[in-house]
Design brief:
The chain is built from 20 helices and 28 strands. β4 and β5 (about 60-65) form a beta hairpin. α5 (about 210-230) crosses α13 (about 540-560).
């Protein structure tokens, strides 16, 4: 429920004993459902004291002084039903509307009251952008660190979480298979083995000091999540259950090991809900459906510094208004960029916003050319079928029925690293051994079969309910008897905003890391470099929760030591950024009044719309996203070469030209999704150019980047991280090798 109070309703009524007219006030929630002119609400009056009556309506019984659960009650009579000592006679009350008076009303739900602040301030101690696992973990890490230091109540920090979605719609909720940790609940395991597997999985591009933190601290994160309410699946002796996952082994590359802690195949859903509920308990303040348009960073004062983050420009989509927010600490936790590609497991909101904000603010991205394609996306939908389906016994087969992964990875077969499995699938398809999607039998043979028929039906229902439901709903197949068409789907961005293992964003300048004061990042939009060139399954949720928590703790420590906030800080850069963005928004909306009356195609219709060249289609952000997705798939999906990358860059020039012509089809910015879609297009185009240029510069094959014109790994020249900025300048940062020198990578 949205707690933003827009107006007050005053009820004036006579009590059952005939006393004089009295007044009571009810706060109306703007998000309440239904619009009922002349709507009658029944109030049960228990006593004549304020705040002890109930309003009964479509939304249920709610306390007076709290929310009225019907939208727009009329200037009309509300009936009162007396009970108890007042008898059972019905009385009436007159309703009148007016602006809120005095301090905000208490709703009796203070923790939920923070879900949308009545007014977003112009200044905060910390602003966290994004409310998935990384953002929520950062908020919890910060609040808990302050509580443990005994400073939270004394210092009363002002912290805001900004999300372009309601938090429970964050993409974390779609994670299925598990979260990796060497708990050893079902067989012997060791964090050193996890450490080795992650480095090997990364094709030796991960920074080994960061990977050590990931592997060593993973068990503690799982226990903390359990205490926060994550309902993990259980073994018979009630320990947290674990399953095998691709690339996770025993004894430094030996047999596959059970390392992924799971909750059937809905672990992301469990983690997201648990973290969100803990944030509510602590009173974390959220601004939902606010879209960050600009990150304002002062440039470095000299070669020894990295600059200073000043604040953000945000769009309140409910009011259609822009606002500048100054913050001492800004954390970007905006997720990945799967929407760069047409076939993706990512939700519509993963448009690379945080990474694009960093580039547009003059910062760099690290290793952004490495984009993981999950081997098993459903048919031509791209919807994820979890790796758990193979961990529980599913087998990949070609058109001849052959279990082909033994040809490519004889030691691990279907549970080899994801980049290996995806390339193997594409090799089978290229060799003419692909299959058509049964929903389009005359279509291209660009899938292979996922055979789950060997899994017991009851076990499948118990351990893979999400996978089973997805196949039933979107493929109209029964995986207990039917083989399922799958193909690689864009899934995860290994690279991102460069950060230290404490979440601090930095610039790579003259061979050194220069910290950007006040700027942090966590989760998929960041790159602490624990994934290198390829991520192992189960390590993404771990990365988000672990390094999100560490980032929050770092900010809390800085708050504890900080002097009183300096209110005289120069805010002119923020003001200038706000004015520039407002001019851009005004121009977008002005297009609607310049004779353009056609409606944009819906997001779901982008495939059909993008095939047309008429003016309405060209002025359609969703159609442009569709064109970009196809361009990127042809350029760099799973495999690429110089020719495909350069062709992609040329196509990107045309898309950028077309994007400049986009404008809104409505004159209002209030709840105008087309406005945010146009900004998302800009972010995707910015990021796409960085991905293509970084891919062009790395003249080798490593992990998820396979260049057919440079098919071998080249440690002599490219055992280093690409650091690219918006000007397309690429520099190279050496990989941190600690105790695992590079060697061959076979599964």
């Amino acid at each position: 429920m949205n707690a933003l109070i827009l107006q007050q309703l005053t009820l004036t009524f006579r009590t059952a004993k005939g006393e004089s007219w009295r007044q009571r006030t009810i706060a109306e929630d703007h998000a309440m459902t239904g619009n009922h002119p002349g709507f009658g609400v029944v109030m049960k009056c228990i006593t004549h004291e304020p705040g002890v009556a109930w309003v009964t309506s479509q939304g249920g019984d709610l306390t007076v002084g709290g929310y009225l659960a019907a939208r727009d009650p009329p200037d009309d009579l509300i009936h009162l039903l007396g009970e108890g000592k007042f008898g059972h006679k019905i009385y009436s009350a007159r309703v009148s509307r007016h602006e809120p008076e005095g301090p905000p009303l208490s709703t009796g739900c203070d923790s939920i009251n923070g879900m949308n602040p009545q007014k977003v301030r112009s200044r905060y101690d910390a602003v966290i952008v994004g409310a998935g696992a990384a953002g929520l973990s950062t908020a919890l890490g910060l609040y808990r660190a302050l509580e443990s230091d005994g400073n939270r109540n004394d210092s009363s920090p002002k912290v805001l979480v900004v999300s372009k979605l309601q938090p429970l719609r964050s993409h974390t909720g779609s994670a299925e298979g598990g979260i990796a940790a060497s708990l050893g609940n079902q067989e012997k395991d060791d964090w050193h083995w996890h450490y080795y597997d992650t480095i090997k999985g990364s094709d030796w591009l991960a920074d080994q000091d960061a990977v050590r933190i990931l592997a060593e601290q993973a068990p503690g994160i799982i226990i903390e999540l359990e205490h926060d309410g994550v309902a993990f699946s259980r073994t018979e002796d009630r320990h947290i259950a674990q399953r095998k996952f691709g690339g996770h082994t025993a004894d430094y590359g030996g047999h596959p090991v059970r390392r992924a802690a799971y909750a059937a195949d809905r672990i992301g859903h469990q983690i997201l809900h648990a973290l969100w509920q803990q944030c509510l308990r602590l009173g974390v303040e959220f601004a939902e459906e606010w879209y960050v348009t600009d990150l304002v960073v002062d440039p470095p004062a000299d070669e020894e510094t990295g600059g200073h983050a000043r604040g953000l420009i945000v769009l309140d989509t409910h009011a259609g208004k822009l606002q500048a927010i100054q913050a001492d600490n800004i954390v970007l936790c905006t997720g990945g960029a799967g929407r760069l590609f047409h076939t993706t497991s990512n939700s519509w909101d993963l448009t690379g916003d945080g990474m694009a904000l960093a580039l547009q603010a003059g910062l760099q991205l690290e290793d952004v050319e490495f984009i993981q394609f999950h081997p098993t996306g459903l048919g031509h939908t791209g919807i994820l079928l979890s790796e758990a389906s193979r961990a529980e016994g599913g087998v990949l087969r070609n058109s001849q029925g052959r279990a082909f992964m033994q040809d490519y990875a004889p030691g691990h077969g279907d549970l080899a690293a994801r980049d290996v499995v995806s390339r193997s699938i594409m090799a089978e398809i290229d060799a003419g051994r692909g299959v058509a999607d049964p929903s389009d039998p005359d279509g291209p043979h660009d899938c292979v079969w996922l055979d789950m028929t060997g899994i017991d039906g009851q076990r499948m229902t118990a351990l893979l309910p999400q996978v089973t439901e997805t196949i039933h709903r979107y493929a109209h197949l029964d995986p207990t008897v039917d083989m399922v068409p799958v193909k690689p789907t864009a899934h995860y961005t290994m690279g991102g905003i460069p950060i230290t293992d404490r979440g601090r964003v930095y610039r790579w300048q003259n061979g050194h890391r220069r910290i950007v004061d006040g700027l942090f990042a966590a989760g998929e939009c960041s790159c602490v470099s624990v994934h290198g060139a390829n991520r192992l399954g189960g390590n993404s949720l771990l990365d988000a929760c672990l390094f999100g928590t560490r980032t929050g703790q770092t900010i809390a420590a800085a708050m504890t030591k900080a002097d009183e906030p300096n209110d005289t800080t120069d805010t002119s850069p923020l003001t200038q950024a706000l004015q520039k963005r407002q001019a851009f928004l005004d121009e977008l909306l002005a297009g609607a009044s310049n004779g353009e009356s056609s409606e944009p195609a819906l997001a779901d219709d982008q495939d059909e719309a993008s095939d047309s060249d008429d003016d309405a289609t060209l002025n359609n952000p969703y159609a442009l996203m569709g064109r970009l997705g196809r361009l990127m798939e042809e350029a760099v999906a799973v495999r690429c070469d110089q020719g495909s990358i350069e062709k992609g860059l040329r196509g990107l020039d045309q898309l950028e030209t077309d994007a400049k012509q986009l404008h809104a089809h409505s004159e209002t910015a209030v709840l105008n999704q087309e406005v945010t879609a146009i900004m998302e297009v800009d972010n995707l185009l910015t990021l796409a150019r960085a991905v293509l240029n970084a891919s062009l510069q790395r003249q080798e094959s490593r992990g998820a980047l396979y260049r057919s014109d440079y098919p071998q790994r080249d440690d002599e020249h490219y055992l280093a991280h690409t650091m690219i900025d918006a000007k397309e300048d690429v520099s190279w940062q050496p990989v941190h090798i600690v105790d695992m020198p590079p060697k061959g990578r076979n599964y």
